[in-house]
Specification:
Elements lengths: L1 E2 L2 H9 L7 H17 L1 H9 L3 E7 L13 E4 L8 E6 H5 L2 H16 L7 H18 L9 H7 L4 E2 L1
Parallel strand pairs: 1-3, 2-4
Antiparallel strand pairs: 1-5, 3-4
Helix pairs in contact: 2-5, 5-6
The structure holds zinc ion (ZN).
């Protein structure tokens, strides 16, 4: 999913650290760092061209309903031309690195995708990310998306 509200987006860019309780912060950040490094081959082109500037952990408990069950999010400027951020929830991180990688690849597909939402074209692109990553690494990362939840959120400020 991605966040289309520009003001909220800028606020998150300013203060992404505050959303993880201090006592858990370093462990979550270390795990996020390890996962993003593992995804390097797919990730670096987006880092290089300035579209992806950070990946961060966030706490589901800090989110309002119905977003407090959402494992990943992409912070995007409205026209998608500026820098993006990707959030991975504490819940996703607790499921292990493979699960969290599934979340990261979903969100990365949002950055690559020229548009919002979860239409057929997005899904095709996202599955392509999964296939490319698994082929390159010999891993078996699954699609962990809660598609029903994503569809429910499509109508609000949140989407993607
Ligand atoms: Zn999504």
């Amino acid at each position: 999913m991605s966040w289309k509200d520009e003001e909220k987006y800028l606020r998150w860019l300013d203060a992404p650290l505050g959303i993880v309780p201090a006592e858990k912060e370093s462990a979550y950040w270390a795990q996020v760092d390890a996962i993003t490094e593992d995804a390097g081959q797919l990730l670096f082109p987006y880092v290089r061209d300035g579209r992806l500037i950070f990946v961060f952990p966030y706490c589901l408990d800090e989110q309002q309903e119905p977003y407090n069950t959402l494992d990943g999010l992409t912070l995007s400027p409205k026209d998608k031309s500026g820098p993006h951020g990707i959030g991975i929830s504490d819940h996703a991180l607790q499921q292990g690195d493979d699960y969290a990688m599934g979340v990261l690849l979903h969100e990365l597909a949002h950055i690559d995708f020229d548009g919002y939402g979860h239409g057929q074209e997005f899904i095709r692109q996202f599955k392509g990310f999964l296939d490319r990553f698994n082929e390159a690494t010999g891993r078996s990362i699954q699609d962990v998306t809660d598609w029903e939840l994503e569809r429910q959120l499509e109508a609000g400020d949140w989407s993607g």
